[in-house]
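dude i think i finally got it to work??
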Amino acid sequence: MSGHSKWATIKHKKGAQDKARGKLFAKLIRQVEVAAREGGGDVNSNATLRTMFAKARESSVPLDTIERAIKRGTGELEGVRYEAISYEGYGPGGIAVIVECLTDNRNRTGADVRSTFSKSGGSMAEPGAVSWQFERKGVISVDRSADEDSLTLAAIEAGAEDVQDLGDQWQVVCAPGDLTAVRTGLDEAGFAGSGADLVMLASSTIEISDEAEARKVLKLMDALEDNDDVQNVYSNFDIPDNILEAVSV
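look at this
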């Protein structure tokens, strides 16, 4: 399994820090708002909004805050209009990176992302330069205590494509449009997921086995994530467990 996915699980353990700064809430609210604007405010008919709504609730975003974000998205309330834009680039060791943003100022965000790449030993790339190495998927995290065989059977019966081992948890992978159905199937089978999301998964990985270079890679990831306009960062690096643990403390 990609070291990027392992890094993501470590990053989520630090989620309380983001919550304390208000960054996580702000990013989730933007995602809800844009989903409502693009597909309507009904969670039953808007699959993306349904996913973002659940994601926000799992992170303890207050219900009234989510509802206001939906109303801003549908135009019932006034608010800043956010634009979705993605950037692609290369990081230390030649890793591929995709940065998904929601911004009210494309020029500002583009300049900030470019600067972050440059300062961290990477570089921006033209659209399409690295995205062909990734595929949009739905993923559901399940506690490691779940029995692998039973989970796999339940996941496949629910419509999932794969069950992957992330070390301290299982990751169930499915087609984007099947995310809700798979999650419901797992819940009904007794495998309550700790989170469900739409992500970009790399088709192949680049191993980063040098500790110094691994630190540079994670520094770039953290710097990009720290930008308020950045919603998601995906990469294809694979850092061995021992090195990942050493540089993540």
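Strands lie at 83-90, 96-103, 123-125, 134-143, 162-165, 169-174, 193-202, 206-207, 230-235, 237-238.
im so relieved honestly
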